[in-house]
Amino acid sequence: MTSVTMTVNGKAASGDVPGETLLSDFLREHLRLTGTHVGCDTSQCGACVVHVDGKAVKSCTVLAASLDGAEVTTVEGLANGELHPMQVAFNENHGLQCGFCTPGMIMSGIDMINRYKAEGKELTDDAIRHELEGNICRCTGYHNIVRSIKDAAASM
Amino acid sequence: MSEGIGAAVKRKEDKRFITGRGKYTDDIRMENQAYGAFVRSPHAHAEIRGIDATAALAMEGVIAVHTGPELKEDGIGDIITGWAIHSKDGNPMNVGAWNPMATARVRHVGEPVAIVIAESQALARLAAEAVEVDYEELPAVAAATRALEDGAPLLHDNVPGNLIFDWEIGDEAAADAGLAGAAHITELDIVNNRLAPNAIEPRSAIAVYNDIDDHYTLYTTSQNPHVARLVLSAFYNVAPEHKLRVIAPDVGGGFGSKIYIYPEEITCLWASMKTGRSVKWTSDRSEAFMTDAHARDHVTKARMGFDADGKIVGLKVNTVANIGAYASLFATATPTYLYGTLLSGQYDITNVYCDVKAVHTNTVPVDAYRGAGRPEATFVMERLMETAAREMGMDPAELRRRNFITEFPHQTPVIMTYDSGDFHALLEKGQAAADVAGFAARKAEAASRGKLRGIGYSCYIEACGIAPSKAVGSLGAGVGLWESAEVRVNPVGTIEILTGSHAHGQGHETTFAQVVSDRFGLPMDNITIVHGDTDKVQMGMGTYGSRSGAVGMNAIVKAMDKVEAKVKKIAAHTLEASEDDIVIEDGEVKVAGTDKKMAWHEVGLAAYTAHNLPDGMEPGLKEGAFYDPTNFTFPSGTYICEVEVDPETGVVEIVQFTAADDFGTVINPMIVEGQVHGGVTQGIGQALLENVVYDEDGQLITGSYMDYCMPRADDVPSYVLEHSTTVAPSNPLGVKGCGEAGAIGSPPAVINAITDAIGNNNLTMPATPQKVWAAIQEVGLPQAAE
């Protein structure tokens, strides 16, 4: 067992977990934050994307024990009294259907906008589609996800 | 009103999903939960000589290991297929027995052999690896055409030649005669590639046995919890229906793959009873590739004859369909009554004949997946039409126009009675939206950049709203395919709708509420949709075959008719008016032409206080209905795909995709468009990227997202959508259904566009860069690009 302490959605979170525990398992099983989903076992689908120290990370691909002291934000931590602009945009633009990939899409979308803004680059439709290569959706055909992210970029 | 039928209302269900508060099966945890992991066959075909669980059982935290023979001994039944198909010689089909866990022989890679129950998921999986199974390998066969050859390995003793049935539809002599008199015949060899459905939420089950009441609860990733309960009770003997509750909570996509009741759910229920623990099993993606029902996998020869004017005079289709190692629930219906019956397409054809051989192979079962049979039929029809037009030197749109059915109802020679449609209008709308007139200029411009530009059509028709019970019963279905609904008006006037449909992405909580809001003029907020729990909702048949709108919503309409009748009686009595003068609008119940009225909630209250009801009227305001459709519904459309091919790499870019659909009445255009986006993307996935590959020995080569290519955002374009509506005459709402159309119509449009671009019609799906490049080399570069 390894003792892990991190900040998750602004609150201290700690636990004793087996060393092989993935961040996704730590969030889902230990903290019961089940908004982060796991859809594959090869780091392809992106349903598990969370933010670690402000950057998008596939939580199925990082060990919880390696994140001692880290700041983690999950989809549950986005709404602060009111919905995050990205959450609003997904609803407004019908960017989700079954909702399973959605948390990962939202977290990736926010990260992508943050990076493009920081670098002063324009987030075009093509750029959004390229940036989403690590997130698979089987329902929406991506059309409305692209619109959602573009819409959110304007209000973030 | 703004929230009624036809309004693009934002989805009510979104909030829990965008905030991470959805509740999917794997998110649920029981008090005394243990974890199941399956020991699975690494071989495609083998005898089981023995199973030694000693090492696994010795591990700390392992609770039990159970095997197939134990399950059988306890009377758990074999897994059934739901449609009895007869061969053309009149004999019933032969299907191999399917034990939930193998008893003596395994017939595909991934088949469950034993279940390990342990205190954690990680431990269960580790212990499953410690179970030693002694296999004697047998020769295996994965391709259906090979399985039919003399001397091929045989899977089941009761299935000679691996042939499940040799089925036919239509008149062979008439088709032959039509072809014999043809001025031109187009022939194609077609492979409809094998797919894996890949809902992003993997399957999951939690079985909870309560020994005090001898009662079971199953939380599961199901598109049809009531059907699950029915078969678990009636056929698998897990528990009688009143002692089994099935709950399908939020479900992360289905596309058909979550219709079926798989070995894992059955085994978990039984194991919960054996161990006295709640048993949870969640598939990982590798398991999903090995065990979720696959799709398509047809090999077809097709011949279509034309007279000198381009009128179709005959069509003959011979198909070999891979059913896999066992016949899954809809496996026998998919390549027959959902396929052969659509081989008239949008065209007026007198002579159609189709023969289908269904075959067992050493692969995971193949079953219905988004479109189910209809994508395969559409691919045959629309590849033939495009190819024929090119061969005859005709405009492919003009050839279609000459053959369109224009009068309805239209009886095809393959059972279906099309009841509505306007195929000319759809083609026209599609062509205008796709700017077909400007294609030549775009092609020339692309050529100047060294790119090959091509355009392809697909004019599809499908049958959904599955299905009239009597009709499907006569064709071999084991169940009726009606739907049920209950409308509960509460004393305060709010409404709960209980439906047997199940949403796993389709947005029923919104569209179903819109239908109710529209009818009674109530705000959406006052209406709740309840689904997915056999203890809450009366019997239901679930969601598949684009049936939730055409069947499920019409059941709600039928129940609302009864509610409305009672509301009018109560209001007429209270307001001292004639029932015929009562109108319901904007949440008020009024006497037409007067200022006399009651608020909707006042009628609700009157029904429940029962102080002043008409003589003989029962208190309460709650009505149920079963709706059994009188016909299939027939969505149709024209899809036009435009591609650019890089001749140096074979890479295909879809530069424009236009879909013009006729779905009948549209309740929520935003949601309907979303269904088209998703369906078309799955069709593009089939055409360009996706392919399940087994090697000759039945080993699964494409077992993860590293080898099975799912469409990503940059593989597909933004879509151009158009609508042209003819109302479905067979149901009160006039809806046709939209869930599957995109996946049905799109693959031939894509392949027609690529083959147009490269000038070589010899191309199979998925059209990977390697295949496209090779096809270009085969014929040389088209003139324009040289």
From TrEMBL, chain A:
| GO MF, one annotated term | 2 iron, 2 sulfur cluster binding
**Top-level taxon of origin:** Bacteria
Which InterPro entries does UniProt cross-reference here?
A: 2Fe-2S-bd, 2Fe-2S-bd_dom_sf, 2Fe-2S_ferredoxin-like_sf, 2Fe-2S_ferredoxin-type, Aldehyde_Oxdr_Iron-Sulfur, Beta-grasp_dom_sf
- A Pfam family it matches: Fer2
The 2Fe-2S ferredoxin-type domain extends over 2-78
UniProt entry keywords in alphabetical sequence: 2Fe-2S, Iron, Iron-sulfur, Metal-binding, Oxidoreductase
Q: Is RNA-binding one of the keywords?
A: no
Q: Which PANTHER family match?
A: OXIDOREDUCTASE WITH IRON-SULFUR SUBUNIT, OXIDOREDUCTASE, IRON-SULPHUR BINDING SUBUNIT-RELATED-RELATED
Which protein, by its recorded name, is this? (2Fe-2S)-binding protein
From TrEMBL, chain B:
- Membrane is among the record's keywords: no
- Does the keyword Cytoplasm feature in the UniProt annotation? no
SMART domains for this protein: Ald_Xan_dh_C
TM region(s), chain numbering: none
Could you tell me which Pfam families the record lists for this protein?
A: Ald_Xan_dh_C (PF01315), MoCoBD_1 (PF02738), MoCoBD_2 (PF20256)
Domain Aldehyde oxidase/xanthine dehydrogenase a/b hammerhead stretches: 19-139
MF GO annotations:
iron ion binding; oxidoreductase activity
Q: Which residues form a coiled coil?
A: none
Name of this protein: Xanthine dehydrogenase family protein molybdopterin-binding subunit
The source organism is: Oceaniradius stylonematis
